[in-house]
Amino acid sequence: MHVWHGLGEVDPGYGPSVVTIGNFDGVHRGHQEVLRHAKARAAELGGLPVVAMTFDPHPMSVLRPGHAPAMLSEPGQRAELLGAAGADAVLILPFDKDVASWSPEEFIDRVLVGTLHAKAVVVGENFRFGHKAAGHVDTLVAAGAAKGFQVEGLSLAGDAQPWSSTYIRELIAEGNVESAAEALGRPLRVTGVVVEGDKRGRELGYPTANIPALARAAVPLDGVYAGWLTVLEPAPGAPQYAEPLPAAISVGSNPTFDDVDRRVESYVLDRDDLELYGARIAVDFVARLRGSQIRFDTIDDLLVQMKADVDQARRVLTELG
Question: Which of 30, 200, 212, 268 places its Cα 20 to 30 Å from the Cα of 255?
Answer without folding.
Answer: 268
